[in-house]
Amino acid sequence: MLDYTNCNLYSIDYSNAVEANYKNNGINHVGRFHLFQASIYEMPFAKAQFDKVICIGVLQHTPDFEKSIESLIEMAKPGAEVVVDFYSINGWWTKLHAKYLLRPFTKNMSHEKLFEKVDSNIDWLIKCTRFFTKLKLGKYINRFLPICDIDGTLPKNLPYNRLRELCVLDTFDMYSPQYDQPQKIITVVNWFKKYGMDQVKGEKIYYDTYEASVVKGIKK
């Protein structure tokens, strides 16, 4: 957004990831990039003052999904657009997945120990994923391997060292959060309407090989 628009961007994160964020992005956008470490439930801003509110890759990891939606909508001024994405429930099979089967254990591990486990096992897991994908069985078997979705979420034709790095980070991200609460798109659409949004639209967005469940609307 900072690279392609003239916006002033106010961004929050609950963790100390804000430090890496500022290191990566702040130096190139001094004066327009305003970064805060804060909870989505206690944002350090006056309500109803933003022209656009965007939340990407966060909501499923918050303790109260509906309250998180309400908190975001409160920040939008009348006529402003609110856009969110999230992990969606696609059917009964959604939680029949390695990350939901193992997370009751991994979320209680120290981050250092979990990262070590992921890093020490990632190479053979990559090999297994590629093997089953080559046999055209990846769609059915890879979901039970404790590794991120290489085929569905990572860029193609990466050099191995870069692929490995992203697999370690994404797999750690799968198993470390305290909360992982996917939702039906219609549920999030209804929450948008409940908290004062108009022209609400929820759908799956496809781009390249990626898929995102997105809901957006205009504040009344």
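(the above was protein one; protein two follows)
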Amino acid sequence: MFLTRGLRTALRIITGLVLALLYVPLTVVMINSFNPDRTFGWPPTGFTLTWWSRAAQNAGVLAALRTSVVVGLLSTATALILGTLAALSLQRYKFFGRQAVSLLVILPIALPGIITGIALNNAFRTVLGVPLSLLTLVIAHATFCIVVVFNNVLARLRRLGGDLEEASMDLGADSFTTFRRVTLPLLRTALLAGGLLAFALSFDEIIVTRFTAGQATTTLPLWILDNLFRPNQAPIVNVVATALVLASLIPIAIAQRLSGDPSGGRL
């Protein structure tokens, strides 16, 4: 598509403004994590690692971090199993209601988080009579983590087709052997990418977490929200936010790289 010079310039300016709107506030938070001034006077009057040291020794931060990691790992493991099975079923088999099932699998991530949170809260407490706990939080996170895994696996299956699996069965391999020796290796990078994205999504979730976590369960995003407006904790909140931004870059970058590998890293 041909763009005039003026239009290209306008697009560059708009892109720059959008990126600045997104990343300048993040940069300010990261700089303030090293700011010795508790009131975050600007520009910073110096450089300190005091807040990082205190954050590393803060019992609330460490407990919330452990909870977030546990919830993220459990919900990701659940999503990997259920999301992969759903993708295989919908791609390999034709049955009545196939499109409806596909829509229902994808729907949780399309709904506003507050709607999902309210629905799950009512389901656990009113319908099932289950008290909110770490288990209910894992189940809630798994509902939207499944979508990420499902989309990655389904996209890989569509690119690969079924020729290699059919060839394996023609040579005498049963369904389980074909899945273990052919399908799973070809899906390996898609599963890794989906798992990394699912973990990052679970780790950062706050709205659904607020509605489905028990009173004794505090994840790192909830800890940040609860301490955001406490003056004594504000510097530590900046440190935690900076650490989360830096840590989130790793799984997202790896997942993006792996998602673009159509061969599964073997061909």
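Reviewer note on protein two: The CA atoms of residues 185 and 264 lie 7 Å apart.
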